[in-house]
Write a structure and sequence with these properties.
By secondary structure, the protein is α+β, with helices and mostly antiparallel strands. The protein is 27% helix and 21% strand.
Length: 479
């Protein structure tokens, strides 16, 4: 019989009991307790973060009461709140207008992972992708070179650029599938052409038969519209607004936490997972961010990574994280995959950690592999998911180790299928008029609560900037 855990909340003035509670029950390291003690002493900050969300009434959104208190200490993760916490209203998951507001705020002003550098490894490679329905193209500049292995550790030659994937002439999507472009990008509609740096090159007959221009036509203003683009590891990020802080600052909480992992050893596995889910994108992120559901939804996973062995942790101001203390590597014929070196010095031989980088990028670091999980909204009730796997060092990528590499991939496919069944039913549930945002476990779902806070803050920021919203037939958010 499994021993029942003591779930009683410690007294606020008992620091010794608090330490025992978080180290034994939450399994949080003692190094993270000072943040918790500071949060416990800051009762105002704790209280202000509770009850952030209010339900929708009628056919309009009331103002979401987002706290102005700083999030650095992350009180909603540091300790359970005594005040009930309410989630985003159902229409945040079903309304086309709400998705449009997310597009204008969450996806416009933050760094968004849109693909991988190895998707465009060769000069002339073009890769169409999207940010919340906005068409984008990644292209590798430079001269064509012989095809190389996508798992190679050598960096691709030529700069990587991002543009809006639309012809400046009549708005046609320039590239509709991954390809290698010879010399220039050509619009198939009227044959306008663009150099790889985005400048407009050719406009055949635009000024009349056999005349490529006319007086007053400004070619410089009609090139492709560039997008701010940066890379970390194999991940390519864009910032549509161009005003986000440096990518290094956005990633700093993650890179510092994972500094004991030599991520330069990662090699990409060619097998990946791509699927479409009939649910709002936020439900996939929320599901990834908590382990409360493991025992009932993932019996196979829970047998080797139990709910009780998971813990939540702080990852800067806007990201959230959780981990498992008892990760078990796959074994076949007494063999297992290579691991990151020196994990014993950091005490991470059996630790796996999962971070949700706001808004829609999920990463998982394990002793023997690295997961990249991107979810992208297509419609309020539809999203795409992409899962890419990286393993540690060249030895892991040999044909002899393929079956070992497929073990975690197969487990993630099985786990994700189970998750999708749940989140699609969560989407159906949000069509009910009686769902008012739900509530959160003060111990096991604070990562989800904090993610929803970030969404509310971003959308509310738009409401404050634009207090009057014209009626479009959709539900509207009041400022």
């Amino acid at each position: 019989m499994r021993r029942e855990r003591d779930n009683r909340c410690p007294q606020e003035n008992d620091l010794k009991g608090l330490k025992l509670f978080f180290t034994k029950i939450f399994r949080v390291s003692t190094s993270e307790l000072p943040l918790m003690r500071r949060s416990m002493n800051n009762q105002d900050a704790i209280t202000s973060h509770a009850g952030v969300f209010v339900q929708a009434r009628g056919d309009q959104y009331p103002p979401m009461q987002v706290s102005a208190a700083p999030l650095q200490q992350n009180p909603v993760i540091d300790r359970p709140s005594a005040i009930p916490q309410q989630g985003l209203p159902a229409k945040a998951y079903t309304s086309a207008q709400y998705l449009e507001w997310e597009r204008q705020t969450v996806f416009y002003h933050h760094w968004i992972c849109v693909g991988l550098a190895s998707d465009v490894s060769q000069p002339g490679d073009a890769y169409p992708t999207e940010v919340a329905g906005i068409p984008i193209i990644l292209i590798r500049d430079g001269r064509r070179s012989p095809q190389s292995d996508i798992s190679s550790s050598s960096a691709p030659s030529g700069p990587l650029r991002a543009f809006h994937n639309v012809c400046s002439h009549r708005g046609l999507q320039l590239v509709d599938r991954p390809c290698n472009v010879q010399g220039k990008l050509r619009c198939p509609y009227h044959s306008w052409t663009y150099r790889f740096d985005g400048t407009l090159k050719g406009t055949p007959h635009f000024g009349g038969y056999h005349q490529d221009g006319y007086s007053g036509f400004d070619r410089d203003r009609n090139g492709l519209k560039p997008i701010r683009c940066e890379q970390w590891l194999d991940l390519v990020f864009v910032n549509l607004s161009g005003d986000a802080p440096p990518l290094a600052d956005y990633l700093k909480p993650v890179t510092e936490r994972w500094s004991s992992y030599n991520l330069s050893l990662l090699r990409r596995e060619s097998r990946e997972v791509n699927l479409q889910c009939q649910a709002n994108w936020k439900l996939a992120v929320e599901n990834f961010s908590e382990s409360y559901h493991l025992s009932w939804v993932h019996p196979a996973l829970n047998s080797c990574s139990r709910m009780e062995d998971h813990f939540g942790f702080e990852v800067g101001d806007i990201h959230v994280g959780q981990g498992s203390l008892l990760y078990q590597r796959g074994v076949l014929e007494h063999r297992s995959l290579p691991t990151f070196p020196d994990l014993d010095k950091a005490g991470k031989q059996t630790v796996a950690e999962y971070v949700t980088l706001f808004p829609n990028l999920m990463l998982g670091v394990h002793p023997d592999y690295f997961l990249v999980f991107i979810v992208n909204p297509i419609a309020p009730d539809r999203s795409t998911e992409r899962m890419v796997f990286y393993f540690v060092g060249e030895d892991a990528m040999t044909p002899n180790n393929q079956a070992l590499r497929y073990l975690p991939i197969d487990l993630w496919i099985e786990t994700n299928d189970e998750d999708i069944h749940m989140i699609e039913r969560l989407q159906v549930g949000r069509r009910s008029p009686v769902f008012e945002g739900g509530c959160f476990s003060p111990q096991l779902e604070q990562t989800v609560y904090r993610f929803q806070q970030q969404i509310a803050q971003a959308v509310n920021g738009r409401a404050r900037a634009q207090p009057a919203v014209a009626s479009t037939g959709h539900d509207t958010l009041r400022a």
